[in-house]
Write a structure and sequence with these properties.
The protein is α/β, with parallel strands linked by helices. Helix content is 42%, strand content 14%. The strands form three sheets. Strands 1, 3, 4, 8, 9 and 10 form a six-stranded mixed sheet that branches. Strands 5-6-7 form a three-stranded parallel sheet. Strand 9 and strand 10 (359-362) form a beta hairpin. The protein is globular and about 60 Å long. The structure holds iron/sulfur cluster (SF4).
Length: 399
């Protein structure tokens, strides 16, 4: 068989629902014609969602960044401040966090992503207190937050096992993990960009523990910091292996590295074609993960639209607030009406979803679209660009 015929044969098998090997996934990622790859991935998506394959989803959420102080100093990160950096470092108090939750509810948001640095003082107790307070005042908000890295850090600070840390924050109100901190799971690229973070194996081990304790999660991949194609596929392999055992990853979300204001000098970003190829290969290779999310925040709305034809079934969140990738240069913004419009123009029916992917509102008639879109007028980024603290934020005490 020629190489072209071999690739087509693998594509046909994957499109028909057959499992492909990491080696085959790498061949497809490197060499399959782009449109054929997208068509195969779209066939898998349509079969998985037969009956609702015309729908693409989004969610309304708010990222709440509780501190940027972090001891982990990832080289790609433009958000964090070292603990001694009192000019850049800040924390957000509980009243401020609750006010942001109230705004989220008022604007129709259903989920908050509590996201921040590895603060040297924040153990399990900090998260218990904050999640309990949020759930007490806003039981309708889903707390889809944190990830294995935060769990590892808070357990170390509190001197408890990760099992205990997960059990306690789950009891306090955490609903699911957002899968933050996966970055690149293979050792070489992970050490190159996040040398102080736990290993990729440990990240997966903690996610597996969480899944077994009943806390599901999403999974992510940071593309474009110098990793090889083989390392990208290895990342997928590591996720698929855990998913075979737990079934706890609800979604896979690749996103592209943003190059501003960080310490990774001279790294190239992933191209948009590489990104689309990853969306498609993820749909084909991760046959045990239900949802593949297109990330328009880092790649742009048009690429978000294209991703819906390369295997993605979801465009993620309309963020009422986002600071982390914005600090590193992500400039794309959208609101509910725009997302509805761009999904429609991509040939799909938009639907607002819950954290667990139930359809909350299907926008199948433009005449019934929200007219008073308060989400649009409140979309904001309190971006901490160039390391300047937002005036509302409290500077840390130097001591
Ligand atoms: S990515 Fe997260 S853990 Fe790494 S430096 Fe930034 S805030 Fe800290």
């Amino acid at each position: 068989m020629t190489e072209k015929a071999e690739l087509q044969s693998v594509l046909d098998r994957a499109a028909a629902g057959g499992r492909i090997t990491p080696e085959e996934a790498l061949d497809l990622y490197r060499s399959a014609p782009l449109h054929a790859l997208g068509a195969a991935a779209d066939a898998v998506r349509r079969r998985r969602y037969a009956g609702t394959e015309h729908i693409a989803t989004y969610i309304i959420e708010r990222n709440i960044n509780y501190t940027n102080v972090c001891v982990t100093a990832c080289k790609f990160c433009a958000f964090y401040a070292a603990p001694k950096d009192t000019k850049k470092g800040w924390t957000r108090d509980l009243d401020d966090i609750l006010r942001r939750c109230a705004e989220t509810v008022e604007l129709g948001g259903t989920q908050i992503m509590f996201q921040g640095g590895h603060h040297p003082d924040y153990g399990v107790e900090y998260y218990e207190k904050h999640f309990a307070a949020i759930k007490k005042d806003f039981p309708q908000l889903v707390i889809h937050s944190l990830g294995a890295s935060e769990v590892e850090h808070m357990a170390r600070i509190s001197g408890v096992s990760v099992e205990e840390a997960i059990t306690r924050i789950h009891a306090a109100g955490l609903d699911s993990f957002a899968g933050a901190g996966a970055e690149l799971l293979p050792e070489r690229p992970r050490k190159a960009i996040a040398p102080l973070k736990e290993s990729g194996e440990r990240w997966l081990e903690i996610m597996e523990i969480a899944h077994k304790l009943g806390v599901e999660s999403t999974s992510t991949m940071l593309m474009g910091t110098g990793e090889t194609n083989a390392e990208r596929i290895e990342h997928l392999r590591m996720i698929r292996e855990v998913q075979d055992r737990t079934g706890g990853f609800r979604a896979f979300i690749p996103y592209t590295y943003q190059p501003e204001n960080n310490h990774l000098k001279g790294r190239t970003q992933a191209t948009l074609f590489e990104y689309l190829r990853m969306i498609a290969v993820a749909r084909l290779f991760l046959d045990n993960v239900a949802h593949i999310q297109g990330s328009w925040l880092t790649t742009g709305k048009e690429v978000g639209q294209l991703s819906l034809h390369y295997g993605a079934d979801d465009l993620g969140s309309i963020m009422l607030e986002e600071n982390v990738v914005s600090s590193a240069g992500a400039r794309h913004r959208s609101n509910r009406l725009e997302i509805i419009d761009l999904i429609r123009k991509a040939g799909r029916v938009p639907a607002q979803r819950s954290t667990t992917y139930e359809h909350l509102a299907v926008h199948d008639d433009p005449a019934n679209d929200p007219v008073d879109d308060r989400v649009a007028s409140h979309i904001s980024s309190v971006a901490i660009e160039g390391g300047t603290a937002h005036p509302e934020l409290k500077l840390l005490d130097a001591n």
